[in-house]
Amino acid sequence: MAEKPDKTDRADKMEKSEKDRGIRVYELAKELKLDSRRLIDLLHRLQVENIRNHMSTVEPGPERIVRDIMQGKLPPSGAATAPPTSGSPETASAGASVPAGPATGAAPPAAPRSAG
Questions:
Q1: Which of 48, 74, 79, 104 is the most exposed place for a label (fewest CB within 10 A)?
Q2: Between 101 and 45, where is the model more confident?
Q3: C-alpha–C-alpha distance, residues 86 and 62, integer Å
Q4: How far is CA 23 from CA 1, 37, 58, 81, in A?
């Protein structure tokens, strides 16, 4: 008769696979004694994609960069030169200063049409 895997075995496997994938925003924020919203803002300025809320997963590369910034090993402005998390060329060639608001090169909204 085959034994069922113990709950601790499954938990260990899940824990290892989660660590390979990264860490949740709220967990990293807690470790760094930061508010999750501030960490999300920093990750957005670093152009880390797919970070939407406190439950999003930060991949190991951006996690290391954030930790280095918070420990003073990297200046916040130099951190934007981090390798992008996607293969898009826009993120790879971005400068150190990343605007916090919408893109400045976007076209202005169209004027409302008058009925006539």
A1: 104
A2: 45
A3: 12
A4: 38, 15, 5, 21
Q: What are phi and psi of 76, to 5 degrees?
A: -55, -35
pTM value is: 0.53
Residue with structure tokens 């402005």? 77
d(CA 109, CA 33): 40
Contacts of 60 (CB under 8 A, 6+ apart): 20, 22
> 15-43: per-residue pLDDT in tens?
555 556 899 999 999 999 999 999 999 99
| CB hemisphere CA count around 10 (13 angstroms) | 4
**How big is the CA angle at 23 (ends 21 and 28), to the nearest 5 degrees?**
160
Task: Please tell me what DSSP assigns to residue 23.
Answer: E
